Structures are given as structure tokens and as C-alpha cells.
């Protein structure tokens, strides 16, 4: 198989016919991306940006860090000091893409308290489940976007 470069979100990855972690290609890829430190932002499609902004702001300890001039994007970060955490950006769309899986999880130190918090606010949730040392539940925003809430030993 010939080597070829594919671009995933503007980051070049060398695709080879072998999977050796010690290969020169793996070292080259590492050298190219070693400065990447975290997932910066998760994008969530919504059909009513105002309703969704209010829902997320009321449920999570977020602060708004960006709103597009045309009102089609709103970005959040957790409202706390310390290292920069992954952000969440809502974007306006007329049609939601089909999704068959929860796109991301929020980590919690107390899944039972988080579950009670969500259900008290009448958020649609699954039951709490456990697997592989984790305990978690799923919840859905007003557009039906699934989010996970998980705890595990750190």
C-alpha cells in the first residue's frame, strides 16, 4: 500500500500500510502534532440558538466567551479559574445531522448528585448505568442532542 497524507481537521496524518508504533512515520506524525495539547471546542448543532443558550447556561456553570455578530454561534467555557478547559459552542442550523451516539461526556465527581440535579430540572435522562469502573447517564438537550455525564476513578 502506498503512503498518503490525509487531512483531518487541518492536521496531516500519514497513513501507511503498517501499524507499527515504532515506525519512522509514527515519529514524524508525533513531531508534527506534539504541540497540540487538548480538544479546544466541541460543536453542537441547535435549531433555536436562544433557547439552547438559555438551557445550557441554566444547567451548567458556563460563561459566554464568544457570540457571533449574526447570532448563529455562541461559545461557552466553564466559569472557573485554572487551566483552560474544553469549550462548548452551539451553532444554529435548520436541520440537525443524524446522530447514533452520544458525542461527548461531561465528567462529574458525583454522578448521583448530577443525576438528581438534571432530573429536578426536568431534563430528559436515561437511568444511571455502570461499566468498566465508570458510572454514567445520558441526557438530551431541547433539540435531542445527547450528552453523557460520567464518573470514574481519576
From TrEMBL:
Matching InterPro entries: Glyas_Bleomycin-R_OHBP_Dase (IPR029068), Glyas_Fos-R_dOase_dom (IPR004360), VOC_core (IPR037523)
Keywords for the protein's UniProt record, in alphabetical order: Transferase
Entry coiled-coil feature ranges: none
Molecular function, one GO term: transferase activity
Domain VOC: start-end pairs: 38-152
Keyword Transferase: yes
The keyword Transferase appears for this protein: yes
Protein name listed in UniProt: Acetyltransferase
Source species: Paenibacillus elgii
